[in-house]
Amino acid sequence: MSPVRRCSRTACGRPAVATLTYVYADSTAVLGPLATYAEPHCYDLCAEHSERLTAPRGWEVVRLAIDTAAARPSGDDLEALADAVREAARTPRQEPPASGKDRLGADGREADPMEVARRGHLRVLRSPES
Q1: Partners of residue 43 on adjacent β-strands
Q2: pLDDT for 52-91, tens place per residue?
Q3: Helices and strands counted in the chain (H then E)
């Protein structure tokens, strides 16, 4: 799977540069910079489709500033990634619990050791120090 997110439009394989979200209560379509990660109720659009976007009659389109230039990792990003890899290599791994039952959450899925609580799609995470 390619690390580049693609346009959500059918038969369009161009890289996505913007994310479209609908606010139904306000009859508004919001087109902004590409979201950090793909959301199930948002649409990623390429430069061409984001420029040609129109909304249904009676709806308003809010266009936030979009940088259509390809985003490249900065030196700070690469340094932070290298630091995170070094830190992960230094930290000893914890052994999993003896029984598989202890690792299951309330919904029967495997629980994340950092996850404290969950409500819908939102998660509360504990600090790694605790």
Answers
A1: 20
A2: 999 989 999 999 987 655 556 667 777 888 888 888 777 6
A3: 2, 6
* pLDDT value at residue 53: 92
Residue 79 φ then ψ, to 5°: -65, -40
Cα 1-34-87 angle, rounded to 5 deg: 65
pTM of the model: 0.51
Both tokens of 91, joined, read 């930290």
Per-residue pLDDT, averaged over 27-50, amounts to 90
Tell whether the torsion through CA atoms of 27, 47, 80 and 110 is positive or negative: positive
Residues with Cβ within 8 Å of residue 17, at least 6 apart in sequence? 34, 45, 46, 47, 50, 66, 67, 68
List the one residue out of 13, 3, 4 whose CA is nearest residue 49: 13
* Residues pairing with 123 in the sheet: 118
Question: Mapping DSSP to helix (H, G, I), strand (E, B) and coil, where does residue 29 land?
Answer: strand
Token pair listed for 17: 């540069």
